[in-house]
Structures
1.
Amino acid sequence: MEPLLVYFSSKSLNTHRFVLSLDMRSVRIPISMKEEMPAITEPYVLICPTYADDDGSKAVPKQVIRFLNDPRNRELMQGVIASGNRNFGDLFAYSGAVISKKCKVPCLYKFELSGTLEDIKNVKQGMRKLWESLKQTKQQHLMAV
Ligand SMILES: Cc1cc2nc3c(=O)[nH]c(=O)nc-3n(C[C@H](O)[C@H](O)[C@H](O)COP(=O)(O)O)c2cc1C
């Protein structure tokens, strides 16, 4: 199975542009809360921008919270990649820390806005490595049966 990304991006589309540059399989969490959530049935990495208030609350967009309220979606999440803007100082990409803590998954990477060429290279490489290790773990489980 090829790596899979699930991501949220608001109307400013920074995260969407980053995901397009990665050229990987991806599913977008809808902006409209009325739209049906996509059904995820395989391991994935979440990419989430940050929309925090000054006190750090509301860092994770409500659409992402709704997606993660489904236990199946939490179970399949291998890690989170967070984005933001460095102008926000300590709260830069803070959604990553919140999701990592709440869902007990690693925060794998942080990038700014639509990312740089270096970010694209790093995330592609990281995703390939992660999927390779997932494949190996699966094989080891099968051999142990
Ligand atoms: C109201 C608002 C609050 C934001 N809060 C944060 C923040 O706390 N930390 C951060 O790193 N970026 C923050 N950002 C920047 C966004 O995370 C950044 O622009 C991101 O790339 C948006 O992704 P999107 O265009 O895919 O929705 C904020 C942006 C807005 C408009």
2.
Amino acid sequence: MQRPQPSYEHCLITGASSGIGAAFARALAPRAGVLTLVARREERLNSLARLLESKSQVRCEVIALDLVKESGVSDLLVEMQKRSLPSVHLLVNNAGYGRVGRFGDFPFNDYREMFELNMRVAAELLYRLLDDLQEGPGRGVINVASAAGFQPIPYFAPYAATKAFLRSLSAGVAEELRSSGTRSLSFCPGPVETEFAKVASLESGFAKPGARAEEVVQIALGAYEKGRLEVVPGLINRLLAWSTRFAPLSLVLKVSAFVLKREIGGPSGTGPAIH
Ligand SMILES: NC(=O)c1ccc[n+]([C@@H]2O[C@H](COP(=O)([O-])OP(=O)(O)OC[C@H]3O[C@@H](n4cnc5c(N)ncnc54)[C@H](OP(=O)(O)O)[C@@H]3O)[C@@H](O)[C@H]2O)c1
């Protein structure tokens, strides 16, 4: 079946206040009718919305809330309904974060919130928007997973596990949606220089030099338009992701541990937060 051209009439982007989410907003603004921008930092979202509206015909809706809250997704959908927004054509499931360190270095509540945001919120949004996404031709979801989702990563283990979950969910659902023409792309970047990384003063080499958010977002949108299931920007990242299929797990773990261990500083062995 020939897949219909993607439609961007109403794009909903989570985590749009910085980094990759903001880059999606900038890239989609010239193509979209309405952009709904979601994150906690309202002022950031408002300035982005003002900028985009001044540069293109797009209408931006800012909804500032904490998606991790149990009612976060419901509150978002109710607010969208209150504002009589059109049904969603593209969902960009982007909000997420990780923690570098030994499993156990952080209070469990930190991990719980990460699991909530990276997995439950992404899955719940997709679930609750399934009808919207199948309502018309050319609709779909971009799930922002990570190259970290291709293998278990010591010292980054809970984060890598959340991204493996999202990759798997995205691809499984893609096949279920195929007959309706709805796209589901798992987007798996390696290190990207985001605003958060700068604010968090990540000094060590792991995330630097990272790719630019604009570049990887262009790659994601290109893959989405082609109806691909998954995309890993960058040859090295693709080779690393591919190699984990064939290398013995013990070797994969040793190499990842070697790279990540450098991120763990301080007497407690606790590293910085990293997205
Ligand atoms: N940067 C990388 O190297 C990299 C690589 C692979 C994958 N990724 C993935 O890319 C996605 C975007 O990350 P990024 O690199 O662009 O980092 P970022 O600049 O820190 O962006 C994270 C976004 O998530 C939002 N967010 C965090 N907690 C939230 C909450 N409780 N409720 C609502 N929004 C929340 C943040 O907004 P507020 O703080 O305003 O709420 C922010 O807009 C994440 O899923 C990350 O795992 C990043």
3.
Amino acid sequence: MRLTDLPAAGKAEKAKMPPAAWLFFQRWMANPKSMGSITPSSAALRKLVRENIVCGPDEVVVEFGGGTGAITRALLEAGIPGERVYSFELDNQLARYLRGAFPDINVIADDCRKAAELLGPEIVGRVGTVVICIPTATLPPSVQREVVDAAFSIMPRGNRFILYTYMPKSTLNQKALNIRGKRLDWTPLNVPPASVWGYWRDEQPA
Ligand SMILES: C[S@@+](CC[C@H](N)C(=O)[O-])C[C@H]1O[C@@H](n2cnc3c(N)ncnc32)[C@H](O)[C@@H]1O
């Protein structure tokens, strides 16, 4: 789809859109590559993510790319207390929105590739699941590697991260990244239809 195919973003359209969707759309126009989608994840995708979160009683969950919080909401719906949710968001406007919408969670307005350094020794090693929400399909291989390494660097050995994608196949080059992936589930009820994948290093997926 080209930008010119979209409806003019005038007052009428803004009035019809919920604030999160409107902000998401605006940030997509400003930075389409980093956003990866023109609309936040659906309730159906949120459910798939919720069902695939692993978080022990003393663990936290870390999100890479909070956006307007569709997946953040899934983490809270999974019963994880806000103070044990950490969301990295590079875009300052979106980080500010997330802080307002989810005052109990920890929003880190910075690059998820710095996760180990920014979370510090108190959190590193206590991360049950990393949820990668940044658009991995369009990342250069070197950046894919940095994001994947950042996810594994904060979890105990053997844990897996999850991500969602609109692609029919894995968006990560498993051989090059020394990881093993498995499509955990998918839903047609997202725009576009989406799959949730889990990726392991060191261990074969069950
Ligand atoms: C597809 S949006 C995800 C939004 C939300 N999780 C959802 O599912 O609706 C991707 C988000 O990742 C953020 N992002 C991209 N690269 C990032 C990075 N290196 N570190 C942190 N956030 C990043 C973008 O600003 C954008 O908000």
4.
Amino acid sequence: MHRAHVSKIGMTALVPPELIFACAGEPFDVNNIIPASKNYPKNKLCAWTAIWREMLVKREIKIDSLIVVAGGDCHNALVDGQKAAMSGIPTHFFFYPFDGDVQYLESQLHKLSSFLGNIEYPEKFRDVKALKKLGRKIDNKRLNGKISSSEAFRILVSFSDLMGDLDRFRNALDIKEGNIALNNRVALIGVPPIYHDFHEAAQSLDLQIVFDELPYEFVRHSGDDINEVALDYCNYTFARSLDFRIEFLQKELEKRKVEGVIHYTQFACHHVLEDEILRAKLDYPMLTIQGDLPGKTPQQIKLRLEAFREVLERS
Ligand code: SF4
């Protein structure tokens, strides 16, 4: 049986896209359009949530319903998500367990499945899992200098919604390989930069980003059914305690042999407060930068990246 209409499901942060596909929905991560956006919202704290909130309220983003991650990785989304809901968009509020409780997450996934009209295509779980395996291969190729960090980032960050179309996405994974000198290997931690050309800017200054913290979470978790998805996504580091996230980061940074860390922070984001803890616990030279509105990477940040590269080259 085929549905005449596939529902477009907006999501404000990471929600297992495999479940949305399995429920015959088309996931759409509302954050993916922000870096290229020219909208400057009037009433804002974090520009990410303020821009999608304004676009949703004005119906400039066309979706059938919305999933707001209200407990987990972003606190601003809770209020801006409610504003979008008050404008009349059918909305579901999703909560990750802070303590990693699998049963709690499983119950959340069942509630989400009911909101979405229940599972219709269980095979989609496996299809997404296979694509995520390819995503991890792409990440590995970037780590070995076969793919540029900007190409790898573009793909990895798209794994939050797989472009809402598994066939189209599979084709997009076909990337030409090259040979990139990995001179100054850095990790990019924190939320992704709001600047659409950040990876190109870093690369042009000879800083090779070999780890993107949040996009790696998008390809790291999967499962063949709700129970397996709960077991895996309960380790989504951004929704857990800082200790849990830092322990994961320490292992990952060591494995990737990074020489330095760039911590991107977003103006008015609560994650800014984590900077001093990350600095104390991660034993690497660290550059903290902060962005606000979307656009190109500002000259001032490029200068700071350049100075950071010099520090790495001297050490
Ligand atoms: S930058 Fe911070 S406040 Fe803004 S959407 Fe991301 S997690 Fe939320």
